[in-house]
Amino acid sequence: MTDTPSPLVTDPAARARILAAVRFDMRGLVPAIAQQHDTGEVLMMAWMNEAALDETLATGRACYYSRSRGGLWRKGETSGQHQEVRDLRLDCDGDTILLLVHQHGVACHTGRRSCFYLAPREGELSEIMAPLISPERLYGA
Fold this sequence. Notes:
alpha+beta; Ubiquitin-like (UB roll); 3 helices; amino-acid biosynthesis
């Protein structure tokens, strides 16, 4: 085991072995949780298919599968708020991925640092985190 792990896997055969260990669901997807590598802050959850995971391993930048668009979603390609993958972990069942990332900017499309900004307070869901940037500024709308 090395002191500074690298999620980069440049050898296609090695990536194929890693992909074979993942238990994708019947839709060919696996949940992926992005967590800030140095603080432990949970940033977001998204889906990966085999191509997204392969690209993430090959490039060191988070790539997900967008169910609504039906294709690969390279985090930050339109907003500039990308995720540099520092480490990648597979859970004990092989059916969930944890990405330890360095988040550049905000993670949530609402302009918040994390997608997990709603919490029960006094019997209601309340926003516990304000946007840091407007979605219009993020996406140029």
